[in-house]
Design brief:
With 575 residues, the protein is an alpha+beta fold. 35% of the residues lie in helices and 18% in strands. It is built from 15 helices and 17 strands. The strands form six sheets. Strands 3, 6, 7, 8 and 9 form a five-stranded mixed beta sheet that branches. Strands 12-13-14-15 form a four-stranded antiparallel beta sheet. A two-stranded antiparallel ribbon has the order 1-2. A hairpin with a 6-residue loop joins β4 and β5. α3 crosses α4 and α9 packs antiparallel against α10.
């Protein structure tokens, strides 16, 4: 068993290790016609063979052949730093390192933005990474297996190599994001409105795209060849060229891998959705609906990148068409734009309701969270985000309660402020005492599911400490009982004896002193929303094995992404 001591020769604690990764996909080449790679910093952890660290464990077992390989832990010095393309493609020890390092880097991105360690959505500390899980063109996160399972396509003719999904940076990031989201909002795998499943797919693609764009070699390559002085013509970074050249090129390369059954990033995600997309049956399918989020975020990325590029055009005569810009500098601004946008989006996750997600909730959450960390939006990033979402028909939900108004100020009599940062029972006591003020009905089963402290750091170095608690409400009844309770007609085709399950819940954000800052919630007795949910679940056949609506979709949670990634529900055909 190999171990890393955790200290540099000089005795200084190690925090990161620099590793070489495939920057996008083995099919993407650099200027030298070799596989495009990048050297990135990966959070350090004491290592054991596998590789196996504190949060991730590579298990290289191939169910198709029965082969099991145990690779050395990742060393201080990258043994693949100078490896040629053949070694990167053929050495399964590199495959193990690549999937471990990419997943670790993705997890670190989320933890840095949210300001705390994250838990998985299952009981256990290790997420298993299986780089050669099966001989199939698929990859997915399995809650039941506590694992990311990566397939491969065997060589079709002698002399050719298999195609490994674990070597696609995009796929590994996409699947790791599913695992992280499941830990943050475990109830988002419950049957719900169409936006909820679409969010998992669309957001996973967004993180994959922005993570790729956070590596400068990828952006430089996408901008095209530079002249002998390292410069490119200005027209290559005009917004139109950025969309139809740079972003489209990178996104299409990601999409060729992801859309074999794994993502929302298809050609239609590279253009604005139709104005009536929300009314079209085609957009009920999670991948297609997720494309809407991808398209919006691509536009925001271009807006931010173009804003940052203006400093390069400030020289006299810079408006002339023949003006050139330094390719490395232009790429660096793209990297910063992607990193900033990704951080903004991830920060918003804490401000989402725990159930019944809709796209407008993401816009609301990102704007609220970013304003807490960056009060002065001097560069107008939040305005850009809001404008692009609203142009796509996605609007912030109406605030039907503002907890900061004087008449709604919560009462803290008998409440331990310090315990509100960590104790679920104390948060439930707070919720119980203030239920009428917070618009929470106590008629329904209610449970506080998580209480998590967080410390986010703004661009000025200011630390924003908060505590984020989530609670969920639920009720089971027959459709007939629901009709009597809600006084609303049932969607056509649903029998009165059908068992149905409904959810509600909210997120409570407390400041460092235990005072409530924000309450974001979905009322369980919003019966009109529940009717919409029932109609959607019934029309798309999302019933459990007993014909119930809202309980499950007739399969285990662990197979949710396997099924989602292998079937296009809008056509019923395998991807």
């Amino acid at each position: 068993m190999s171990e890393i001591t955790g200290y540099e020769p000089e005795g200084q604690p190690r925090t990161h290790v620099t590793l070489r990764l495939i920057a996008q996909d083995p099919a993407v080449k650099g200027d030298d016609r070799r596989i495009l790679t990048a050297k990135v910093k990966v959070p350090w952890s004491r290592m054991e063979d596998g590789p196996r660290g504190a949060r991730l464990h590579v298990v290289d077992f191939d169910t198709a052949t029965g082969e099991y390989l145990k690779h050395p832990g990742i060393a201080d010095d990258d043994v693949f730093a100078d490896a040629d393309d053949d070694e990167l493609l053929d050495d399964k020890a590199f495959h193990a390192q690549h999937v471990y390092a990419t997943a670790a880097r993705t997890l670190a991105t989320f933890e840095s933005a949210l300001g705390r360690r994250l838990s998985w959505g299952f009981e256990g500390h290790h997420l298993y990474l299986v780089p050669h899980a099966f001989a199939e063109a698929n990859a997915f996160y399995s809650d039941d297996d506590h694992a990311l399972l990566f397939g491969y396509v065997p060589a079709s003719v002698p002399g050719r190599r298999p195609v490994y999904t674990c070597l696609s940076h995009d796929v590994v990031v996409h699947e790791t994001t599913h695992a992280v989201l499941d830990g943050l909002r475990h109830r988002f795998l419950e049957p719900s409105l169409p936006d909820q499943a679409a969010f998992h797919e669309g957001f996973a693609d967004i993180v994959a795209l922005l993570s790729v764009f956070s590596m400068r070699p990828v952006v430089e390559q996408a901008l095209g060849r530079a002249d002998k002085d390292g410069r490119i013509s200005r027209d290559r970074v005009e917004p139109g060229r950025l969309r139809h050249g740079v972003l489209t090129g990178v996104a299409e390369q990601i999409g060729r891998t992801l859309t074999q059954g794994r993502g929302a990033l298809r050609a239609s995600a590279l253009k604005p959705p139709p104005e009536d997309w929300a009314e079209l049956r085609l957009y009920d399918e999670p991948h297609r609906r997720g494309e809407v989020l991808v398209a919006v975020v691509l536009d925001v990325l271009i807006d931010i990148w173009w804003t940052r590029l203006q400093a390069l055009f400030s020289r006299p005569g810079s408006k002339a068409k023949d003006v050139t810009v330094d390719r490395a500098r232009a790429a660096e601004e793209g990297v910063k734009a992607a990193s900033q946008l990704l951080t903004m989006l991830i920060r918003g996750l804490d401000y989402l309701p725990p159930v019944e997600f809709e796209f407008g909730d993401l816009l609301d959450a990102v704007l609220l969270a970013d304003a807490e960390v960056v009060p002065d939006d001097d560069l107008g990033y939040r305005d850009m985000l809001a404008q692009r979402f609203e142009a796509a028909g996605i609007h912030r939900p109406d605030r039907n309660a503002d907890v900061l108004e004087a008449e709604l100020t919560p009462r803290y009599l008998g409440i331990n402020y310090a315990s509100l940062r960590s104790d679920r029972d104390e948060v439930f006591r707070f919720l119980w005492q203030n239920a009428p003020r917070l618009g929470v009905s106590t008629r329904f089963y209610t449970i506080v599911e998580s209480v998590l402290p967080t410390q986010r750091i703004g661009p000025d170095g200011l630390i924003v400490p908060e505590s984020v608690a989530t609670y969920v409400q639920m009720i089971d009844m027959t459709a007939g009982e629901f009709a009597r309770e809600s006084e609303l007609p049932l969607p056509e085709g649903i029998d009165h004896d059908t068992r149905v399950q409904f959810f509600g819940g909210g997120t409570l954000v407390f400041d460092q002193f235990g005072r409530l800052k924000l309450h974001v919630y979905k009322r369980i007795d919003d019966w009109r929303r529940q009717v919409r949910r029932l109609a959607y679940l019934d029309s798309t056949g999302r019933r459990d094995t007993k014909g119930g609506l809202g309980f499950s979709e007739g399969r285990s949670r662990g197979q949710a992404f396997a099924a989602l990634h292998s079937t296009d529900l809008s056509s019923g055909e395998a991807w």
